[in-house]
């Protein structure tokens, strides 16, 4: 095993196909298949996209899903997932899977945690048991999960934070990135992404990118954003961060976002996204449509015989009325959250396909105007 570091470099590659302004369309080639980018990754927190069978996820056009190390290490544990053949086999998803490295969720979920140079000690939010995550432990857990894309172990500082706090946190994350890379087992078609930190500070982001590209990763994530800074500051940070990343590697903006966030971030050079919004909204009766979002629990839908959207190519809109969905939620039937999660994920995938097609034919600016106009119009 000791020579795994000298193995031929992993052959996970991102290949550009077209650009339109700063936006890029390309393909991510992995051990578990090739996916078109820009791409939106449904979040499969504990080895399931909540309320969805993987056939339903596949039907939306999703190419890659995300799993959470923090949750899976607590339950069912990485060893059990490994015994079950890894996440692909366990959840019947042969396509690429990206797993996060756990740090972010520990900071936002785990009770009582102690952070030190070596890593973080925390108690499980499930049963209070004590656990430890370090760059090495996180990377090993993701290996056991058989993640196609392994994320470096980092710290995401809460905003607002002073430049000094951001610098110290980023520098520690860069030391952790080197340890994560050292612990990564290179395999054909597998990859590991470094995570750029530095808050909204240009000099810190530049330092972080240099540190990560000196180490060398198969892709680069932009961390430390979508933590309450607001869209304007997120976009202004992307304006100078994305162009400093390698042109020939995939760029992944973590935890983003609304349809408007996705559009704006793609136009600033981002290729990959993950966000709980469409699935979480689906569980709370909130539907995403071309005219913005609507809440199906609202009484105004009780007799609304129309479909969710006129585009009945989603698995739901073409079959069920708003009145039926309203009824399901009022009756607290499990089919309500299932259908609306399905619809929302299908809407996000269709949006990404529309954006990608516009990059390829050079009409992204016109599409952006049309999308924003429609989102602002409000429900039909
Ligand atoms: C892979 C784990 N590391 C890691 N995850 C993140 C997840 C996020 N999710 C959001 N908004 C919902 N911002 C994020 C930042 C990070 C970040 O800076 N690092």
Can you give a write-up of this model?
With 380 residues, this protein is α/β, with parallel strands linked by helices. The chain contains 14 helices and 16 strands. It has helices at 54-59, 69-74, 78-83, 86-90, 103-108, 135-144, 163-183, 202-215, 231-241, 259-266, 277-283, 322-330, 335-360, 364-377, and strands spanning 13-20, 23-30, 33-37, 39-41, 65-67, 97-99, 111-116, 119-123, 130-133, 149-151, 191-196, 219-222, 250-253, 272-274, 286-289, 292-295. Helix 10 runs parallel beside helix 13, helix 12 packs across helix 13 and helix 13 (335-360) packs antiparallel against helix 14. The longest helix is centred in the C-terminal third of the chain and has 26 residues, at 335-360. Mean pLDDT is 95; it is low at 1-8. The site of the ligand CCNc1nc2cc3[nH]c(NC)nc3cc2c(=O)[nH]1 has 15 residues, from helix 5.
């Amino acid at each position: 095993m000791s020579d795994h570091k000298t193995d031929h470099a992993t052959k996970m590659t991102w290949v550009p196909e077209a650009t339109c302004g700063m936006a890029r369309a390309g393909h991510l080639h992995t051990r578990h298949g090739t996916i078109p980018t820009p791409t939106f990754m449904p979040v499969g927190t504990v080895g399931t996209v909540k309320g969805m069978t993987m056939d339903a996820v596949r039907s939306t056009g999703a190419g890659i899903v995300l799993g959470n190390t923090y949750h899976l290490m607590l339950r069912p544990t990485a060893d059990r997932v490994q015994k079950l053949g890894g996440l692909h086999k366990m959840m019947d998803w042969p396509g690429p899977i990206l797993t996060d490295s756990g740090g972010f969720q520990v900071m936002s979920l785990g009770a009582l945690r102690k952070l030190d140079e070596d890593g973080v000690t925390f108690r499980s939010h499930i049963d209070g048991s004590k656990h430890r995550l370090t760059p090495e432990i996180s990377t090993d857990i993701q290996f056991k999960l058989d993640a196609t894309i392994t994320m470096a172990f980092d710290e995401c500082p809460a905003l607002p934070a002073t430049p000094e706090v951001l610098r110290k946190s980023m520098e520690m994350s860069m030391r952790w990135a080197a340890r994560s890379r050292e612990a990564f087992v290179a395999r054909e078609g597998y990859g590991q992404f470094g995570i750029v930190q530095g808050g909204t500070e240009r000099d810190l982001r530049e330092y972080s990118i240099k540190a990560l590209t000196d180490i060398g990763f198969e892709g680069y994530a932009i961390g430390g954003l979508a933590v309450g800074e607001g869209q304007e500051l997120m976009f202004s940070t992307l304006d100078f961060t994305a162009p400093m990343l390698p042109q020939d590697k995939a760029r992944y903006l973590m935890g983003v976002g609304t349809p408007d966030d996705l559009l704006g971030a793609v136009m600033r050079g981002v290729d990959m996204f993950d966000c709980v919004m469409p699935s979480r909204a689906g569980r709370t009766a909130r539907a995403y449509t071309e005219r913005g979002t609507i809440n199906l629990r609202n009484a105004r839908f009780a007799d609304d015989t129309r479909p969710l959207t006129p585009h009945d190519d989603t698995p739901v809109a073409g079959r069920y009325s708003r009145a039926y969905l309203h009824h399901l939620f009022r009756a607290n039937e499990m089919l309500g959250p299932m259908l609306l999660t399905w619809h929302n994920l299908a809407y996000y995938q269709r949006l990404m396909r529309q954006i990608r097609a516009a990059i390829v034919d050079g009409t992204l600016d016109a599409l952006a105007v049309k999308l924003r106009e429609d989102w602002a119009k409000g429900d039909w």
